[in-house]
């Protein structure tokens, strides 16, 4: 029995869940998300509580039971509260500037990098060395953060690069004389 899968998902006010043809569609104040799931699990919505159950006793059903429950719970949370990812730019001259739907990054290259934000994603830069990416789709926010981080991954000797807030960069010792 999956402890995660058994947990019911209580819907906050203003969140609607529609289930049809192995697809869960969650809509809230921030937007609308949908997800397809396998037919080895059943998802039901009764009286503002979403319940996920395995359809049979197969190994595939037991594997997907908790996964589907967590993904639906995350979708409910995302359309209610949204998702934020904080990035920090560490390095001399590393700066980020948000101008409308574009993020201008200065990362020590001979040119600036201009990153176009996809629809549904916003960014803000409180100070030049920090960048906050926000949206209501957890997967898309994480993907945008990963693409921006890929321009300058943190290097282990000086620690320069773009890191997520709270990430630990393993530092190496340099050459010894």
TrEMBL record:
The Gene Ontology biological process annotation of the record reads: cytoplasmic translation
GO MF terms here are: rRNA binding; structural constituent of ribosome
Q: Where is the Large ribosomal subunit protein uL6 alpha-beta domain?
A: 12-82, 90-162
Q: Which HAMAP family match?
A: Ribosomal_uL6_B
What is annotated about its quaternary structure and interactions?
A: Part of the 50S ribosomal subunit.
**According to its UniProt entry, what is the function of this protein?**
This protein binds to the 23S rRNA, and is important in its secondary structure. It is located near the subunit interface in the base of the L7/L12 stalk, and near the tRNA binding site of the peptidyltransferase center.
List the protein's name: Large ribosomal subunit protein uL6
Q: What is the lineage of its organism?
A: Bacteria, Pseudomonadati, Pseudomonadota, Alphaproteobacteria, Holosporales
Q: Which gene encodes it?
A: rplF
């Amino acid at each position: 029995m999956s402890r995660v899968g058994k947990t019911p998902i209580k819907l906050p006010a203003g969140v609607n869940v529609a289930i049809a043809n192995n697809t869960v569609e969650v809509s809230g104040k921030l937007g609308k998300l949908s997800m397809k799931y396998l037919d080895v699990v059943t998802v039901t919505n009764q009286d503002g509580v979403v319940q996920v159950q395995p359809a049979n006793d197969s190994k595939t059903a037991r594997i997907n039971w908790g996964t589907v429950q967590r993904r639906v719970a995350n979708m409910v949370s995302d359309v209610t509260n949204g998702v934020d990812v904080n990035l920090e730019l560490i390095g001399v001259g590393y700066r980020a500037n948000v101008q409308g739907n574009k993020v201008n990054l200065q990362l020590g290259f001979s040119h600036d990098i201009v990153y176009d934000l996809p629809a549904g994603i916003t960014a803000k830069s409180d100070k030049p060395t920090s960048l906050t990416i926000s949206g209501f789709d957890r997967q898309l926010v994480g993907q945008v953060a990963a693409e921006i981080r890929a321009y300058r991954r943190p290097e282990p000797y000086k620690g320069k690069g773009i890191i997520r807030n709270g990430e630990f960069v393993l530092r190496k010792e340099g050459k010894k004389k």
